[in-house]
UniProtKB/TrEMBL annotation:
Species in which this protein is naturally found: Tabrizicola piscis
Family: Belongs to the short-chain dehydrogenases/reductases (SDR) family.
Domain Ketoreductase span(s) in chain numbering: 12-191
Domain of life: Bacteria
Protein name as annotated: SDR family oxidoreductase
Name of one Pfam family that matches: adh_short_C2
Keyword Oxidoreductase: yes
GO molecular function, one term: oxidoreductase activity
Keyword Secreted part of the UniProt annotation: no
Keywords on record: Oxidoreductase
Taxonomic path: Bacteria, Pseudomonadati, Pseudomonadota, Alphaproteobacteria, Rhodobacterales
Length: 254
């Protein structure tokens, strides 16, 4: 699959949370191929991934190890990326953890941890980059939510709650910082077949059942998300803000 080309993304300072695996890895590669200056963070070592990206694209991403649930660590990471690449003008809040849990067995420690990863980190990442975007005359923030909060789904109430909160966060920040020409949008993917999903939850039966409810018959791959994110990052969508773009193959419609 070939991404569309957005010339205005060349040279942009882009930061992606969780940019070394799953959807995030596909996004990192796509932005690198646009000629952007890409920095990303995750907890595990991503040096081999960076080597592979440099070989494949001729453009090496900046990897900064970080636990996004630790706010001051996240803020320092974003500051470091801005010092290396210039003020961040495209922020993609992608990292999340959809660990399953039973509502009646969930304690406060797990709830607080889930919120720190899936919602709190989004807020403080936005807070960290907005001053630089204001100084630059604008920017684009793309927050990853999920169709999970639109469904009558069970088994991960904290994650679902956080994803609903991300849409609220997106809308209020779009209103507050629109005068600075900072656009804030959300992406709500359906079931994307990342390696993690395949290892933990995908079975032939579950996948067949899910695909039967999509309008489109094909499984969603990480690369299928990239084009929409590039569009939201680019001036091609300069009048689009406060929106949630659903990429689920028509599952919700069904």
């Amino acid at each position: 699959m070939t991404d569309p080309t957005f010339p205005d993304l060349h040279g942009q300072s882009v930061f992606i949370t969780g940019g070394g695996s799953g959807i995030g890895a596909a996004l990192t590669e796509s932005f690198l191929r646009q000629g952007a200056k890409v920095a990303f963070c995750q907890r595990s070592d991503a040096t081999p991934f960076c080597d592979a990206m440099e070989q494949a694209t001729g453009n090496r991403p900046l990897f900064l190890p970080c636990d996004i649930s630790v706010t001051d660590q996240l803020q320092l990471t974003l500051s470091t990326a801005a010092k290396v690449h210039g003020p961040i003008t495209v922020l993609v809040n992608n990292a999340a953890n959809d660990q399953r849990h039973k509502t009646l067995e969930t304690d406060q420690a797990f709830w607080d941890w889930s919120m720190s990863v899936n919602l709190r980190s989004y807020f403080f990442a936005c807070q960290s980059v907005i001053p630089g975007m204001q100084a630059a005359g604008g920017g684009s923030i793309i927050n990853f939510s999920s169709i999970s909060f639109m469904m009558a789904d069970v088994g991960y109430a904290a994650y679902i709650t956080a994803n609903a909160g991300i849409v609220g966060l997106t809308r209020t920040l779009a209103r507050e910082f629109g005068p600075d020409r900072i656009r804030v949008n959300a992406i709500a993917p359906g079931w994307v077949l990342t390696d993690r999903q395949k290892e933990l939850w995908v079975t032939p039966e579950s996948l067949a059942n899910h695909l039967a409810k999509q309008c489109l018959p094909d499984p969603i791959e990480p690369a299928d998300i990239s084009g929409a994110v590039l569009y939201l990052a680019s001036n091609a969508s300069r009048m689009m803000t406060s929106q949630t773009l659903v990429l689920d193959g028509g599952f919700i419609a069904a």
